[in-house]
């Protein structure tokens, strides 16, 4: 090997060229540590054909928020607004999600990063298939590794199933901490479920969400205190 080629192996751009060659077929794993930053991951997602959703997307929807956020929210999959803008949770559910977070002083500028199980929009907003979720999961795992959140909020049963593999009714598990890969996770209602159930009566989904987000805020404060932040 010429010394010029050897030297080029130390050059960041040439390393990234190699990553771009990683096949995007779902059968081929994306090993942990593949991406050194979110831009590389986003670039790859926008070229991805690991499942059939790649052929109908406008934009891959990777994430928004603080890239080192202590709290990460994981949704299901992009809808039309997200597919058009390339940003997660920017439609009506996203506006409600931002309000829920803001109600306890959290926002994507300082504390929160938002991503989805699936990066591409399923046609007619159908639930992603198990194959589509499995094909996309390595990207989410890389996002979790890069952001390294202390707390992960899983919005709805699809998000719980997509990340942990556990098929559980969200009404049964919301508001309870679970541990996944050494990280604290809390299943919560999906904001779109709250849009369909607007009552704020005691015991209603919105009321329960208010309890859950306060529990999350309290845990976050506890962690900050024990970390001396
Ligand atoms: N619903 C989701 O689960 N994710 C989005 O990004 C938007 C709506």
Automatic annotation (TrEMBL):
Going by the record, the broad EC class of this enzyme is hydrolase
Keywords noted in UniProt = 4Fe-4S, DNA damage, DNA repair, Hydrolase, Iron, Iron-sulfur, Metal-binding
Keyword Iron-sulfur set for record: yes
Q: Does the keyword Glycosyltransferase apply?
A: no
What EC number(s) does the entry state?
3.2.2.27
Q: CDD domains given for it? A: UDG-F4_TTUDGA_SPO1dp_like (cd10030)
What residues does the Uracil-DNA glycosylase-like domain cover? 62-214
Q: Which reaction does it catalyse?
A: Hydrolyzes single-stranded DNA or mismatched double-stranded DNA and polynucleotides, releasing free uracil
Matches recorded under InterPro entries: UDG_Type-4/5, Ura-DNA_glyco_family4, Uracil-DNA_glycosylase-like, Uracil-DNA_glycosylase-like_sf
One family name in Pfam for this protein? UDG
Note the superkingdom of the native organism.
Bacteria
Which PANTHER family would you find in this protein's record? TYPE-4 URACIL-DNA GLYCOSYLASE, TYPE-5 URACIL-DNA GLYCOSYLASE
**Family (UniProt):** Belongs to the uracil-DNA glycosylase (UDG) superfamily. Type 4 (UDGa) family.
Note the NCBIfam families from the entry. Answer: UDG_fam4
Descriptive protein name: Type-4 uracil-DNA glycosylase
């Amino acid at each position: 090997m010429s010394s010029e080629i050897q030297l080029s192996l130390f050059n960041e751009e040439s390393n990234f060229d190699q990553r771009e060659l990683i096949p995007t077929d779902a059968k081929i794993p994306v090993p942990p540590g593949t991406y050194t930053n979110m831009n590389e991951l986003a670039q790859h997602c926008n070229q991805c054909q690991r499942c059939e959703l790649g052929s109908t997307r406008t934009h891959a929807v990777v994430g928004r928020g603080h890239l080192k956020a202590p709290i990460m929210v994981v949704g299901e999959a992009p809808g039309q607004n997200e597919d058009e803008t390339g940003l997660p949770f920017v439609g009506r559910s996203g506006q409600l999600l931002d309000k829920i977070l803001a109600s306890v002083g959290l926002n994507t500028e300082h504390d929160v990063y938002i991503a989805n199980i699936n990066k591409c929009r399923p046609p007619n907003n159908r639930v992603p298939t198990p194959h589509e979720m499995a094909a996309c999961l390595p990207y989410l795992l890389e996002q979790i590794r890069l952001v390294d959140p202390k707390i992960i909020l899983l919005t709805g049963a699809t998000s719980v199933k997509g990340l942990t593999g556990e098929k559980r009714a969200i009404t049964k598990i919301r508001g309870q901490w679970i541990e996944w890969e050494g990280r604290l996770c809390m299943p919560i209602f999906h904001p779109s479920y709250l849009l369909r159930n607007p009552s704020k009566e005691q015991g209603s989904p919105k009321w329960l969400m208010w309890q859950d987000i306060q529990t999350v805020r309290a845990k976050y404060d506890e962690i900050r205190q024990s970390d001396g932040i």
